[in-house]
């Protein structure tokens, strides 16, 4: 008999079952990401992912977010209105890897992409850059399948460095930092973009130089081989 497929929120009414589902969703998606990364390494001898971090949002943070958006702290509101209770952060080497990862995730049949926010092409006012995907993953329980929300943030190491420090700084000011600090943070965000662009073009230049070197070595090898055959022929005659 086919299991009933429901969305998280329908019939899940306790904190414990809700957190269990979010933890399971993180496990499912993280495994998928690790497989994609390993496959990429196998095919292209290259890892697009530097590292993956994940967390279930703390109860205080969930309640704070609900309050900020004018909602009461109920399980229903948490499930409906807090999209990043299960959060996964993928940190990539280069900006191009972010879009490769996003495309690979989008192609996974059992994941449903609900929305995408490209804060790389359209950075936030703060200077924040990252690629966000909100998706659902089916969690197979003994008596039903529950589609559970996960927010994936994909960014480069430089973007992650900026966001982590900015988060800490803003925490200290509780979101009310003096203007000159916000301005300097925006300037730092621009420096991060310049650094990412430079590292990307450097990587492209290195790949090209390596390819040329290999071609030159191959041609050299062929020429040496031909010369050896030629001198052997002369020796025999
Ligand atoms: P924390 O403490 O990191 O969990 P949504 O309901 O999803 O549409 P939301 O949550 O505002 O609305 O979505 P958005 O803009 O995609 O942001 C979600 C998360 O992105 C935030 O979660 C942060 O982790 C990160 N983020 C967004 N803007 C900034 C920023 O300006 N600076 C930094 N450092 N991070 C940012 P939380 O719950 O706000 O925070």
Blueprint of the fold:
Elements: E1 4-7, H1 15-44, E2 49-56, H2 59-68, H3 75-81, E3 86-92, H4 95-106, E4 112-118, E5 131-140, E6 144-156, H5 157-173, H6 179-236
Parallel strand pairs: 1-6, 3-6
Antiparallel strand pairs: 2-3, 4-5, 5-6
Helix pairs in contact: 5-6
Bound molecules: ligand 0O2.
Global morphology: flat
What is the annotated CATH architecture of the domain at 4-159? 2-Layer Sandwich
Structural class: alpha/beta
**Count, helices:** 6
CATH superfamily of the domain at 4-159: Beta Polymerase, domain 2
| Secondary structure tally: strands | 6
Please write the string of helix (H) and strand (E) elements. Answer: EHEHHEHEEEHH
Largest sheet: 6 strands, mixed
Beta-strand fraction estimate: 15-25%
The first-level CATH class of the domain at 4-159 is given as Alpha Beta
Helix content: 55-70%
CATH topology of the domain at 4-159: Beta Polymerase, domain 2
Bound molecules: ligand 0O2
Low-confidence stretches: none
Rg of Cα set: 25 Å
Detailed description of the structure:
With 237 residues, this protein is of the alpha/beta class. It has a domain at 4-159: 2-Layer Sandwich (Beta Polymerase, domain 2), CATH 3.30.460. It has helices at residues 15-44, 59-68, 75-81, 95-106, 157-173, 179-236, and strands at residues 4-7, 49-56, 86-92, 112-118, 131-140, 144-156. The chain binds ligand 0O2. Residues 57, 61, 65, 83-84, 117, 124, 126, 128, 132, 163, 166-167 line the site of ligand 0O2.
Main traits of this protein?
single chain, 237 residues, alpha/beta, Beta Polymerase, domain 2, six-stranded mixed β-sheet, 6 helices, flat, binds ligand 0O2
